[in-house]
Design brief:
heterodimer; A: Alpha-Beta Plaits; 7 helices; globular; B: alpha+beta; Rossmann fold; Dna Ligase, domain 1; 8-stranded antiparallel beta sheet; 3-stranded antiparallel beta sheet; 15 helices
Chain lengths: 298, 442
């Protein structure tokens, strides 16, 4: 079966909220493999002020399920976690939303992908941009008032994080780098059991922030993304020296090649841009139409 | 690897699962949500919707087989099933092609060479000529064969460049017309002629051969209920009202032809029969759509047999071990509109109920909510009914078709029911012109 990458938004505002998130993530493992999990965010309720705060996060899931099967799985999880003692169908205390599914656009009576409020809600975009920097520009384009409503929750001993989370070190490094660029710190170190990550900033914060701001302003209007897909079946290889996510190139560059029936077919960047994502592992089999590279242009 | 889609891909997957063989499915972007993709152990997308770029994309299919470490490729029917070059490429890459040798596919796949080679084995073919060099040669040949005759383009297909000639007075004009039409259609105006068999029955014989020279037949199927352009709609076994001597001779001729060419794996020899005369028409060097009727009557799994034979096993049984019982009928359910020249109907199946109960088998890749892509054959299901007698089989089929609900697309269910109810069908006295005549009366 082919694997797809889905982004799932999870929110809860009743009962043991941290526990709810943790249980929802546990249940999601039946629908696929958790690839990465964002930080948890507190979202101030608006409208109904008598409601408790929401806790939100976004997880990415590698799955063989179709979008509609995922939707069914989410509804089942919502129902299961909603059940409280003595009450067969308790209130829905956890919400799971399918935000993205590969590069698919779906609009039918049951499902809208990308999620219809994806571009407007800070509690979705802020955690999502943690996992996928394609959404950083959209996040930064949100009005200040919307952004102010979400606050990152300090992690408490990592108890709610899935075992898979330790695999997604690059995602954590990215989150740390985000954190660094948002404050005055120049070095952050996290130590947990046998696991230690240190991230340091190389350039003065002010200069970096200015450049980031300049880029964000321009990005919000001009940035577009190209996905370069496999047009044949074979073994995918990264070119040497291997391209890395975040790398920019001024002209066309060979990023990788597909080896099929003893012939190597190069995969090019198709012009200048910034490599946002490498979609297939080096030396792995790829099928027709599989996303290999995501490139930001402009 | 299952190099096909739809119901036959599921059929092959089922045989593999029962044999404990792991499977790799291939699919096009239009079939991503197809059942065969879900049921195989692995699945690879090999191209976009149009078959030329996916199910016929030999480099991507072979590459998929190699990177998934497949041992063998089952081609199903259609697509690459009778492509000798594909079979050769498979063996060049160390993959077993589940079918006869490429040499035999090439020999029997070409209609002219197939007729020549079965004639060597003493199997009658429709009397006819080679390429005609002039209208005078046509006159002489038609005189010796006997009118009516059929003029056909050597490059022909779909009835273009074809003319019926009832007597010598029509020949000159038909010859000129067919030449011009063939020239315009195929840039090749060459013609040959054949005896016209009026209102024949289409009867075919199922065979199996192994690598050790053992060949058996599994009876015949009558496939005379055909839509215009010779597309089969209803098939049954045994052929009703076939003289025992004719039946025995068909079976014996099929075996003789297979032994002569060294045929291995599953195959079907198609014959035209008119009265006591039978003529070999062509051979299909693959599993057929209508194979389940034979499976029901002989209680055998032909696809498993194909896989067993391809892996080098001997048949392990002889002709005397095989006996058919009862009658089996298949109706093809196509997503098409019989009232509009059988125009294919693509769309989404909104509601679906398939029949069940004693003696009924349904082979389909359909599920409620499935989308029928516009790129491929319009067949969406095969309903097979078995009975100890033909009457029981027909009654079961009628009841099964009435149980069937397919909403969202037009289908051939009603048409099949009409055929089953027709006196000529019930009496078992019908030929290939039956359906065209019935439709013309509407």
């Amino acid at each position: 079966m082919s694997e797809h990458l889905a982004y799932v938004g999870i929110g809860t505002n009743a009962g043991d909220r941290t526990g709810n998130l943790s249980r929802a993530l546990g249940e999601l493992r039946n629908a696929g493999t958790l690839a990465a999990i964002s930080s948890t965010y507190r979202t101030a309720p608006w409208g109904h002020l008598d409601q408790p705060e929401f806790l939100n996060l976004v997880a990415s899931l590698r799955t063989e399920l179709s979008p509609h099967e995922l939707l069914d799985a989410f509804l089942a999880i919502e129902r299961r976690l909603g059940r409280t003692a003595g009450e067969r169908w308790g209130p829905r205390i956890v919400d799971l939303d399918l935000l993205l599914y590969d590069d698919l656009t779906i609009a039918d009576e049951r499902l809208r992908v990308p999620h219809e409020h994806l571009a407007e809600r800070a509690f979705v975009l802020v955690p999502l941009a943690e996992l996928d920097e394609r959404f950083a520009a959209m996040r930064d384009a949100l009005p200040e008032s919307e952004l102010a409503g979400v606050l990152r929750v300090e992690r408490e001993g990592g108890t709610m994080m899935a075992p898979e989370f330790s695999l997604a070190i690059s995602e954590r490094v990215r989150a740390l780098a985000d954190f660094l660029s948002s404050g005055d710190a120049v070095r952050v170190r996290i130590v947990r059991e046998n696991d230690e990550i240190e991230v340091a900033r190389r350039q003065p914060y002010a200069a970096r922030a200015r450049r980031a701001n300049d880029r964000t302003a321009a990005d919000a209007t001009r940035l577009r993304f190209d996905t370069i897909k496999a047009d044949l079946v074979g073994i995918f290889h990264l070119s040497r020296p291997a391209p890395s996510e975040g790398e920019t190139f001024d002209a066309d560059r060979e990023l990788g090649y597909i080896e099929a029936l003893g012939i190597r077919t190069p995969v090019h960047s198709m012009g200048a841009g910034r490599l946002v994502r490498i979609g297939a592992a080096d030396e792995s089999p790829v099928e027709y139409g599989q996303a290999l590279f995501s490139i930001a242009r402009g | 690897m299952i190099a096909n889609r739809g119901e036959i891909a599921l059929r092959i997957n089922r045989a593999c699962q029962e044999l404990g063989v792991l499977t790799v499915a291939i699919f096009s972007e239009a079939d991503r949500d197809s059942l065969h993709v879900r049921q195989a152990d692995e699945a690879f997308c090999v191209g976009p919707g149009p078959a030329g770029r996916s199910y016929l994309n030999i480099p991507n299919i072979i590459s998929t087989a190699l990177i998934t470490r497949c041992d063998a490729i089952h081609p199903g029917y259609g697509f690459l099933a009778e492509n000798a070059r594909f079979a050769e490429i498979c063996s060049d890459h160390g993959l077993t092609f589940i079918g006869p040798e490429p040499r035999v596919i090439a020999l029997m796949g070409d209609k002219a060479s197939a007729k020549n080679v079965v004639r060597e084995a003493g199997v009658p073919t429709t009397p006819g000529t080679g390429v005609l060099s002039s209208v005078e040669e046509a006159y002489a040949a038609a005189e010796s064969i006997g009118y009516p005759i059929l003029l056909k383009a050597t490059a022909g297909g779909g009835g273009r460049g074809m003319r019926v000639v009832n007597d010598p007075s029509e020949l000159q004009r038909a010859y000129a017309g067919a030449t011009a039409e063939a020239e315009a259609s195929f840039k090749d105006g060459r013609l040959y002629l054949e005896k016209l068999i009026r209102a024949p029955r289409h009867i075919e014989v199922q065979v199996l051969g192994d690598d050790f020279g053992n060949v058996v037949h599994l009876g015949e199927r009558d496939c005379s209920i055909q839509k215009p352009a010779h597309q089969k709609l209803i098939e049954e076994t045994p052929a009703p009202n076939l003289a025992p001597a004719v039946r025995a001779s068909l079976h014996e001729m099929a075996l003789r032809a297979c032994r002569h060419v060294g045929y291995t794996n599953a195959g079907t020899l198609e014959f035209l029969s008119a009265g006591d005369d039978v003529y070999f028409m062509e051979m299909n060097t693959r599993i057929q759509v209508e194979h389940p009727v034979t499976e029901m009557a002989y209680n055998i799994d032909l696809v498993k047999e194909q896989i067993r034979i391809a892996s080098g096993e001997a048949l392990g049984y002889g002709q005397s071990d095989l006996a058919a019982r009862g009658n089996a009928i298949e109706c093809r359910i196509n997503a098409e509109d019989p009232r509009n020249h059988f125009a294919p109907a693509a769309g989404t199946v909104s509601k679906l109920v398939f029949p069940g109960g004693p003696g009924i088998r349904v082979d389909t890749h359909l599920y409620a909510g499935a989308t029928i892509p516009p790129y491929y054959d319009s067949m969406i299901a095969k309903v097979v009914a078995y009975g100890d007698t033909r009457e029981i089989a027909i009654a079961r089929m009628e009841r099964a078709l009435r149980e069937t609900v397919i909403e969202g697309v037009q289908t051939t269910i009603e048409l099949c029911l009409e055929v089953l109810a027709a006196p000529a069908f019930r009496d078992g006295r019908y030929n290939v012109e039956f359906l065209s005549n019935e439709l013309a009366l509407r």
